[in-house]
Amino acid sequence: MCDGCDTFPLGCGSPECLTGEENLAKKFMSYKGDRLTNPESVKGFEKLTNDQQQLFESFLSNFYKRWEYPERHIPVNVAATWDKSSGKYLRVDFKDGQWFHVKGPNTWY
Predict the structure, then answer these.
(1) Same domain, 17 and 45
(2) What's the CA gap between 109 and 101, in Å, rounded?
(3) Please, what is the average pLDDT of the chain?
(4) Which of 64, 59, 65, 62 has its CA nearest to residue 78?
(5) Which has the closest alpha carbon to 29: 73, 4, 61?
(6) Cα–Cα distance measured from residue 103 to residue 62, given in angstroms and rounded to the nearest whole number
(7) Which residues touch 83 (CB under 8 Å, ≥6 apart)?
(8) Same domain, 66 and 14
(9) N or C: which end of the chain has fewer CB within 10 A?
(10) Is beta strand 99-104 parallel, antiparallel or unpaired with respect to 107-108?
(11) Do the Cβ atoms of 28 and 36 come closer than 8 Å?
């Protein structure tokens, strides 16, 4: 349903209703209303499989919710990788030089 009306999806005539961008944009907003980096705009996203893309989207949504100021944590690169000690994981690099192993939507270190 569109956030601007009670009909689905074309009732209010909003261009956002036609594209779905309004709902995606609202999903990746800070508590202050700042737009956060969405998964599709992170370098490497397009190289992930569909399952890995869904994992990254879920991780990023959960990750943003854990911070008081999520706009300070900007992902810049994501890649599927593997190593002997960790197995398969997504490596997510952030603008500040920090990076995480992402093993699940709620599991990262």
Answers:
(1) no
(2) 5
(3) 81
(4) 59
(5) 61
(6) 13
(7) none
(8) no
(9) C
(10) antiparallel
(11) yes
Residues in Cβ contact with 36 at an 8 Å cutoff, skipping those fewer than 6 apart: 28, 29, 30, 64, 70, 71
Residue 14 · residue 2 · CB < 8 Å: yes
pTM for the predicted model, two decimal places: 0.73
Work out the burial of residue 77: count CB atoms within 10 Å of its CB; fewer than 13 is exposed, 13-18 middle, 19 or more buried.
middle
Residue 82's domain spans which residues? Answer: 37-108
Domain count, the chain: 2
**Per-residue model confidence as pLDDT tens digits over 84-101:** 988 999 999 999 999 999
Residues 58, 30, single domain; the answer is: no
DSSP 8-state secondary structure symbol assigned to residue 84: T
Q: Report the alpha-carbon distance of residue 67 to residue 51 in Å, rounded.
A: 25
Between CA 79 and CA 93 the distance in angstroms is 9
| Spatial contact of 102 and 92, defined as CB atoms under 8 Å apart | yes
Amino acid at position 73, single letter: H
In which band, very low, low, confident or very high, does the pLDDT at 47 lie, cut at 50, 70 and 90? very high
CA quadruple 62, 67, 72, 75: dihedral, nearest 10: -20
